[in-house]
Design a protein that fits this description.
This protein has 284 residues and is of the alpha/beta class. It folds into two domains: 3-103, Rossmann fold (3-Layer(aba) Sandwich); 106-244, NAD(P)-binding Rossmann-like Domain (Rossmann fold, 3-Layer(aba) Sandwich), CATH 3.40.50. The protein is built from ten helices and twelve strands. The strands form two sheets. It has a six-stranded mixed β-sheet with strand order 2-1-3-5-6-4, sandwiched between helices.
């Protein structure tokens, strides 16, 4: 009997989660149905309850419902507790058992960096942005024992707030905040663009001296072509990476929560990249 899963969001048409999870399932011989589920902005809980009544066993959660998913769950992983948001829900097989929430974004980023051979121990990391994307990945990044993590944001108070909130997780890492326009010019090993700037082809105001030959410039956005941030970094000698691998790796972690099996992400990454490029060519 096919197991029922879904990704919920608003909007949701763009989601590639069905393709990813169906690919994982075929690889491991698991019979599942995976849907895109649109919910009204004020209708998240109603949509979740209706999905559960249809026999739904699990759900990925995208914008703008990650906070509501966290609130809905009776049990939460430490990762979700740190992020105060959830992108994965696990539904029990009976109504008297608690809903479980997790946040797999951070481990998705760390696993994607590892896939590309990027280690973080004793490294200097700059994170651009202090919103939900940064909150979701900060604890898993700190667990890798970097030397320094600097969070830069247009409103520096948000960056300073994250620093205070996560200081207990920093260990010996030097965790600090900065205005986005006031980053001191020094080389970083990893720069993570967690701002939405790439979605509108904009570049955060950054000094050239942040990037060197050993700098990995990671944009959480992805598309058929390199983002403006990736192009900026590559022009200065850095190594650009986009967030497609993070999307696949966070999905693989959700898949493991539901099925207790870990898929091979490599062929799924390749198929997804080809699919994105093919669609872009068709739209030209």
């Amino acid at each position: 009997m096919s197991q029922l899963f879904a990704v919920i969001g608003n909007p949701i048409e763009h989601s590639r989660s069905p393709m990813i999870h169906q690919s994982f399932a075929r690889q491991l011989g698991i019979d599942l149905t995976y849907e895109k589920l649109w919910a009204a902005i004020d209708g998240f809980e109603e949509a979740v309850n209706a999905f559960r009544e249809r026999g739904g066993r699990g759900m990925n959660v995208t914008v703008p419902f990650k906070l509501e998913a966290f609130d809905l769950a009776e049990r939460r992983s430490p990762r979700a507790e740190r992020a105060l948001a959830a992108n994965t829900l696990v539904f029990p097989d009976s109504a008297d058992k608690p809903v479980y929430a997790d946040n797999t974004d951070g481990v998705g980023l760390v696993n994607d960096l590892a896939f590309h051979g990027v280690t973080l121990d004793d490294k200097r990391i700059l994170i651009l942005g202090a919103g939900g994307a940064t909150r979701g990945v900060l604890a898993p990044l700190l667990e890798q024992a970097p030397q320094e993590v600097l969070i830069a944001n247009r409103n520096p108070e948000r960056a300073y707030g994250l620093v205070e909130e996560f200081r207990d997780a920093a260990g010996e890492c030097r965790l600090s905040g900065s205005p986005l326009e006031g980053i001191e010019e020094s080389l970083f090993d990893l720069i993570v663009n967690a701002t939405p700037a790439s979605l509108t082809a904009q570049l955060p105001p950054l000094p050239d001296g942040l990037v060197g030959a050993h700098t990995v410039a990671y944009d959480m956005a992805y598309g058929a072509e390199p983002t403006v941030f990736m192009q900026w970094a590559e022009a200065r000698g850095g190594r650009p990476l986009d967030g497609l691998g993070m999307l696949v790796e966070q999905a693989a972690e959700s898949f493991y929560l539901w099925h207790a099996q870990r898929p091979d992400t490599t062929p799924v990454r390749e198929a997804l990249r080809q699919n994105i490029r093919k669609k872009a060519d068709q739209e030209e």
